[in-house]
Amino acid sequence: MTVAAIIAAGGRGERLGAATPKALVLLGGEPLVVHACRALRSAGVAEIIVAAPPDSVDAVASLLPDARVVAGGATRTASVRRALAELSAAVDVVLVHDAARALAPAALVRRVADAVEAGADAVVPVIAVADTVKQVDEAGAVVATVDREMLRAVQTPQGFRRSVLVAAHEAGGDGAEATDDAGLVERFGAAVVTVPGSADALKVTTRADLLVAEALLRDRLDSHGEVTA
Length: 229
Prior knowledge:
Order of helices and strands: EEEHEHEHEHEEEEEHHEH
CATH topology: Spore Coat Polysaccharide Biosynthesis Protein SpsA, Chain A
Shape: globular
CATH architecture: Alpha-Beta Complex
Distance between the termini: 22 Å
Number of strands: 12
Largest sheet: 8 strands, mixed
Number of helices: 7
Radius of gyration: 17 Å
Strand content: 15-25%
């Protein structure tokens, strides 16, 4: 099967306090989106399409000569839909990844892709929820303590059989929105299965997240002597 990846890179990075789009924020001297692409390539992904902010397409494209960069939409879902339309006909498996999860290891990418190739319609990497979780009402009062044994935090890349992901986007229509593509697939009625995630696949959203990512990257450098996925 031919595996392609879509990188959602349209975040503006306000919570990072960045002057550039989040995908162009530097991590170890390189933009987040460059790290994300490196991991995908290391895992054998044949085709990468990046959905970037419309005013940053040229800047992102200049960093990624082996990827195709398209202008994203007003929302994450719209951006992924635009990138889906650009996939080559040979693609069977689509991974959807967040540029903000720049250090997702190649082994995680491969684990997700392998599960789709083995027959799953949709696959998400997950990690256990460590914190106690409370359900609250509109006023902020606690309603219940949720059993965290049944909860998982979802990461990217998420993997899909191409036909399933396209059908889920089409069924949702132009106004469909979800915080991740697995959400659209769930609404469409297809089964979503899980594989183990990775602590390295944290999402860089705040300055504190960036500091953690810097530490993880330094650990990789200390262990391997170079930036690796």
